């Protein structure tokens, strides 16, 4: 600790030094003491205020420096070393004042970066339950539709419940691609959870295979590719706990006899049954255009006879397809005759599901053109035959009719079909009234869809015009730049540098 007397003498000595410094600064100043120095500071656009830079005849800067030197001398008395100069002391003081602020600014910036980089997680939506939807009809006939799997296969159960369906179909991946992203663990878990919470059973669900699959193709390379797609979809069924898988048998592509292609299909089924555990492969009857396999029940029977594990194979009957192939099921007798032929050629025990579709084309057209229930050549009476036949009870009966992006269409069709299943002998007037109900809903949905299409066209046209305008502007700018002289370019460069 320093002696008080020596500290006092140090203070007096520092004061004398400061006074001498002030005198020296004033004597060397180029401006006479009588000539005041002023600095103009702008206060507004039209006002300037003069600020005197002298304090008692001494330049303000020199006076300020003297004040600092005195303060340094005082700090020296309080423990500042003599070697520490005024400038270093000021620097040390400045650091003491600025460092906390710099640290604070750094912390704020770091926090902002963290907040910016850390996205807020969306709140998970609550799981749907039966109470979220209108009650479904209680019926022995499991009526439903082919619903969308957009956003994940787990959403099919929600979409089915929304239309009050008691069964449904879905695509396990894109129906027009050979492969697709694997099912995520989350999707699988949610699908199984909703299966129970929304009151569905695996027997009520009839997944549909990819349209690309042709197990009857005589080209071995293409058949192998089709089989790999087929097997992948069967494995997806097993991951989801589903029991059925519906697929189109394919085509001979006009290269081999029908029996040869039937053998190829059976061979693929036998192999797939060995490579999977329990899924039933359900063959669909077809409309019969070109070299398509399966328009005749004898084709389906020919495949099944060659399948070794008969418990792993079945048939799905499509009403539009059989009508297009020449089976007239519009009358009760016609329906019975068709079912008798199916039983003889295939076996009623192999019927595992149906696709309920009206037809836009007449009997025997061999054209696969689906129409809304009651609005095509089949009419509501045909579906009454189906829904009063005990052999269709408990099977997934799935519509593949036009939806028009509106659940109201399927809701109305299912409502009418469920009514049909409860009436033993509906008269023509009742059927005509119900047909008009469906027609009205379809018309409204069709108009809404057309408006949506027009709005989309207008929006796309506006985007196209804007893109064209942008291109024209850029082309004009490029044209102007190409006309610039060397002097113009030099001037632009100068302006850019100044800016």
TrEMBL record:
InterPro entries: AP_endonuc_2, AP_endonuc_F2_Zn_BS, Xyl_isomerase-like_sf, Xyl_isomerase-like_TIM-brl. GO terms for biological process: base-excision repair. Residues 478-492 have a biased composition (Acidic residues). Residues 23-137, 462-499 are annotated as: Disordered. Residues 50-59, 467-477 have a biased composition (Basic and acidic residues). Its cofactor is Zn(2+). It comes from the Eukaryota. One of its GO terms (cellular component) is mitochondrion. SUPFAM superfamilies: Xylose isomerase-like. The keyword Hydrolase applies. Residues 112-121 have a biased composition (Basic residues). Pfam families: AP_endonuc_2. Keywords: DNA damage, DNA repair, Endonuclease, Hydrolase, Metal-binding, Nuclease, Zinc. GO terms for molecular function: DNA binding; DNA-(apurinic or apyrimidinic site) endonuclease activity; phosphoric diester hydrolase activity; zinc ion binding. Residues 160-419 form the Xylose isomerase-like TIM barrel domain. Belongs to the AP endonuclease 2 family. This is Apurinic-apyrimidinic endonuclease 1. It comes from Gloeophyllum trabeum (strain ATCC 11539 / FP-39264 / Madison 617) (Brown rot fungus).
């Amino acid at each position: 600790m320093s002696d008080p007397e020596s500290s006092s003498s140090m203070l007096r000595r520092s004061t004398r030094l400061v006074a001498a410094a002030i005198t020296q600064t004033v004597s060397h100043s180029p401006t006479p003491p009588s000539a005041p120095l002023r600095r103009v500071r702008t206060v507004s656009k039209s006002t300037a205020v003069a600020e005197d830079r002298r304090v008692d005849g001494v330049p303000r800067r020199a006076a300020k420096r003297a004040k600092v030197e005195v303060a340094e001398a005082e700090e020296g008395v309080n423990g500042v070393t003599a070697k520490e100069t005024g400038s270093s002391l000021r620097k040390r003081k400045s650091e003491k004042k600025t460092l906390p602020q710099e640290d604070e600014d750094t912390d704020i910036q770091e926090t902002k970066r963290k907040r910016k980089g850390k996205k807020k997680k969306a709140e998970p939506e609550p799981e749907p339950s039966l109470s979220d939807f209108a009650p479904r009809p209680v019926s022995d006939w499991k009526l439903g539709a082919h619903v969308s799997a957009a956003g994940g296969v787990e959403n099919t159960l929600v979409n089915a419940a929304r239309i009050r369906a008691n069964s449904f179909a879905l695509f396990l991946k894109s129906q027009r691609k050979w492969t697709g992203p694997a099912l995520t663990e989350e999707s699988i878990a949610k699908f199984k959870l909703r299966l129970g919470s929304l009151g569905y059973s695996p027997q009520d669900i009839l997944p549909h295979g990819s349209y690309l699959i042709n197990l009857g193709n005589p080209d071995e390379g293409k058949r192998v590719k089709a089989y790999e797609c087929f097997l992948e979809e069967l494995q997806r069924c097993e991951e989801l706990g589903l029991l059925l898988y519906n697929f189109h048998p394919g085509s001979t592509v006009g290269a081999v006899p029908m029996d040869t292609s039937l053998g190829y299909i059976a061979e693929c089924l036998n192999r797939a049954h060995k490579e999977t555990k329990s899924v039933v492969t359900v063959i669909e009857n077809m409309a019969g255009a070109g070299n398509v396999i399966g328009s005749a029940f004898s084709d389906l029977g020919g495949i099944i006879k060659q399948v070794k594990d008969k418990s792993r194979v079945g048939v799905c009957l499509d009403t539009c397809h059989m009508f297009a192939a020449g089976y007239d099921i519009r009358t009760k007798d016609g329906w019975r005759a068709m079912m008798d032929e199916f039983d003889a050629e295939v076996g009623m025990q192999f019927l595992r599901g149906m696709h309920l579709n009206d037809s836009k084309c007449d009997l025997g057209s061999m054209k696969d053109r689906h129409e809304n229930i009651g609005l095509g050549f089949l009419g509501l009476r045909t579906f009454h035959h189906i829904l009063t036949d005990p052999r269709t009870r408990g099977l997934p009966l799935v519509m593949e009719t036009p939806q028009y992006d509106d659940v109201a269409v399927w809701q109305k069709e299912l409502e009418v079909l469920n009514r049909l299943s409860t009436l033993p002998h509906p008269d023509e007037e009742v059927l005509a009234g119900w047909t008009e109900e469906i027609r009205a809903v379809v018309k409204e949905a069709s108009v809404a869809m057309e408006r949506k299409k027009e709005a989309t066209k207008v929006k796309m046209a506006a985007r196209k015009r804007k893109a064209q305008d942008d291109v024209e502007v850029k082309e004009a700018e490029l044209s102007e730049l190409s006309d610039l002289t060397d002097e113009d370019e030099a001037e632009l460069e100068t302006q850019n540098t100044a800016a």
